[in-house]
Amino acid sequence: MDNENSQLPYTGQCLCGLIQYAVDKIESQMGHCHCSMCRKFHGAAFSTFAEAQVANFHWLKGKKHLKTYLAPNGTQRKFCEQCGSSLIFVPANDTREIIEFSLGTLDSDTPIKPDAHVFTDYRAHWYEITDPLPQFKENRKT
Ligand SMILES: [Zn+2]
Ligand SMILES: [Zn+2]
């Protein structure tokens, strides 16, 4: 990669590389979510989803390999059918022009950093939050 243009657009992919995307602009709000569904979806202590305007998010390849899990609460989670990487979260009754993608799949560096912990009431017992970011028991208050 040449370093001059490696920052924009940001690019990312799933573990196996079947699915790749580019993002022109990442929105500033980015939280670590400790809810049990995020923990299970990621197989980790928490998820970190970044937001982008739909118009700024582009599938470069492999979109057809996205599988969707529709949860009983109406939320959707999309993942790679081959490697299982967690890629996309869609809220129930979503009408926003926003796409939420898992930051862990991003390959580019981004100047935007997570700014909060949310749904900390559902935090894994074995994980202690030790950074100074604000914590919200459920959704962040905007
Ligand atoms: Zn994959
Ligand atoms: Zn969550």
Question: Which secondary structure elements does this structure contain, and how are they paired or packed?
Answer:
Blueprint: E1 10-13, E2 20-23, E3 31-33, H1 36-42, E4 47-53, E5 57-61, E6 66-70, E7 76-80, E8 86-90, E9 98-102, E10 116-118
Parallel strand pairs: 3-10
Antiparallel strand pairs: 1-2, 2-5, 3-4, 4-9, 6-7, 7-8, 8-9
Could you explain how this protein is built, in words?
- A hairpin with a 7-residue loop joins β8 and β9.
- The strands form two sheets. Strands 6-7-8-9-4-3-10 form a seven-stranded mixed sheet. A three-stranded antiparallel sheet has the order 1-2-5, with no helix packed on it.
- The protein has one helix and ten strands.
- The chain is mainly beta and 142 residues long.
- It has one domain: Metal Binding Protein, Guanine Nucleotide Exchange Factor, Chain A (Beta Complex), CATH 2.170.150.
- The N terminus is likely disordered.
- The site of one zinc ion has 9 residues, from loops.
**Over the alpha carbons, how many angstroms does the gyration radius reach?**
15 Å
What is the helical fraction, as a range of percent?
A: under 10%
Largest sheet: 7 strands, mixed
CATH class descriptor name: Mainly Beta
CATH architecture: Beta Complex
CATH topology: Metal Binding Protein, Guanine Nucleotide Exchange Factor, Chain A
| Extended strand count | 10
Distance between the termini: 39 Å
* Mean pLDDT over the residues: 93
Assign an overall shape. globular
Structural class: mainly beta
Question: Strand share of the residues?
Answer: 25-35%
Report the total helices.
1
What ligands are attached or bound here?
A: zinc ion
Q: Tell me the count of domains.
A: 1
- Write the element-wise H/E pattern from the N-terminal end onward: EEEHEEEEEEE
Strand order in space, largest sheet: 6-7-8-9-4-3-10
